[in-house]
Structures are given as structure tokens and as C-alpha cells.
Write a structure and sequence with these properties.
The structure is a single chain. This protein is globular. It folds into 2 domains: about 55 residues, no CATH class; about 150 residues, Calycin beta-barrel core domain (Lipocalin, Beta Barrel), CATH 2.40.128. α1 crosses α2. The chain is α+β, with helices and mostly antiparallel strands. A 10-stranded antiparallel beta barrel has the order 1-2-3-4-5-6-7-8-9-10. The protein is built from 3 helices and 10 strands; from the N terminus they run αααββββββββββ.
């Protein structure tokens, strides 16, 4: 049943896109005020849900801050109270798929080895949450995270607060809960932090400062 509904949604969206193109191609024509003849109530409902899911909203617009080329400074803490390992790097972030997502290409070094990562982030209209993924040359994991936009210390909605899991093969732990936090400081700066919640809510393991080039 779920598969049938999903297919119905895709078909309905295809019909809407076809109708939109037809209307746009006709000079002076207006969008139809009623569904095409023969469309059932279920198909219309599926079409509306599908169109809402694919909208680019103000939540996606918030991600536009991150688009651009950045200089980065990455710090890593291996245990509480220890001095961090620090390394410089670069990041390029671009808008993809019609403004629905941003994609990051990150380059730096970690533990004396070259480090590259690719991230995606977007807003899920259906679930009402921000979502992200991260992959890198340091492991074979695909990290996933979900969260919301929250106020910073000045009350501005500038903190992307995500949660996800991280595997620790060195100590044999799978599914370690972590907090991913990105704070917009101003139009040319933001900070990304990872907190290891298993070791304590304030134990920061990674911090990356971004400065626009």
C-alpha cells in the first residue's frame, strides 16, 4: 500500500510539472484553478503533499549563509583537559538541487594525514527538521544527523543544533550519541562543534572555525 501511494505521488507530481510547463509555454495563459479532468481526490491529495515536500522555503534560505569559499581552522581534543591538535584547511560550499540542499567539500589534515570530507545539508519539509550527512577519507561511515534551528545567546535564530551517532572503532563502540552544533557568528564567520555526549554534555571533541575568503 505504501509503495502504491509513493508511486501515485510521483505520477501526480509529474502531472503537475507537465501542466506547469504547458501553462508557461502558452503566452498570457493562467495557471488552472481546478485539477485536470479525471484526477481523483486521492491523486489530488498526493499531488498537494508532493508539491509541499519539494518547496524551497525560508528554512532552505537560511542555509544560504554557508554558500561560498572558506578558510578553516580545525581543532581536535582526544580527552577532556588535553591541548587540542590544530590544523588549517579550506571549505567550498555550494547550493545544489534547486536550492534544496547545500554541499560542502572540505580539505584539511588530521593526525598528520590529509583529510577530505563531503557533507550535505537540507531541510526536510515533510518531517519539519534539518538533516545532514557526512563522509570522509578517515573512515567508511556515512554519518547522518537531524536537528532544528535554535536561538543563540543573543536570541537570534543562528544555531543549527543536530544529533546523530558516531562509531568509535578504536575502542569498539558503535552508535555513540553526539551533538553537532553550527553557530552563525556573522555574515562572514561560523563555527562547527561536535560534543561527545557519552563522555559528558560539555566534552567538545572537534571545533572548526570558518572565515569567508
Amino acid at each position: 500500500m505504501k509503495k502504491r501511494i509513493a508511486v501515485l505521488c510521483l505520477v501526480a507530481c509529474g502531472m503537475v510539472l507537465a501542466l506547469t510547463n504547458t501553462v508557461r509555454s502558452g503566452e498570457g495563459e493562467k495557471s488552472p484553478e481546478s485539477p485536470p479532468a479525471g484526477m481523483s481526490a486521492d491523486a489530488m491529495k498526493a499531488m498537494e503533499a508532493c508539491m509541499k515536500a519539494m518547496e524551497v522555503t525560508e528554512h532552505h534560505e537560511k542555509l544560504r549563509h554557508f554558500i561560498g569559499d572558506w578558510k578553516v581552522t580545525m581543532r581536535i581534543w582526544h580527552m577532556p583537559g588535553a591541548a587540542p591538535m590544530e590544523s588549517p584547511g579550506t571549505s567550498t560550499i555550494k547550493s545544489v538541487l534547486g536550492g534544496r540542499f547545500i554541499q560542502e567539500e572540505f580539505k584539511s589534515s588530521m593526525m598528520g594525514m590529509p583529510y577530505e570530507g563531503i557533507g550535505m545539508q537540507g531541510y526536510n519539509n515533510t518531517r519539519g527538521v534539518y538533516e545532514g550527512t557526512w563522509t570522509s577519507t578517515m573512515d567508511s561511515h556515512i554519518y547522518t544527523m537531524k536537528g532544528t534551528l535554535q536561538p543563540d545567546k543573543d536570541g537570534r535564530m543562528n544555531v543549527f543544533n543536530f544529533y546523530g551517532e558516531m562509531d568509535e572503532p578504536a575502542i569498539g563502540i558503535l552508535g555513540r550519541l553526539v551533538n553537532y552544533r553550527t553557530t552563525i557568528i556573522d555574515k562572514d564567520h561560523h563555527k562547527f562543534e561536535i560534543f561527545d555526549l557519552a563522555a559528558g554534555p560539555d566534552f567538545k571533541v572537534i571545533e572548526i572555525d570558518y572565515a569567508r575568503k
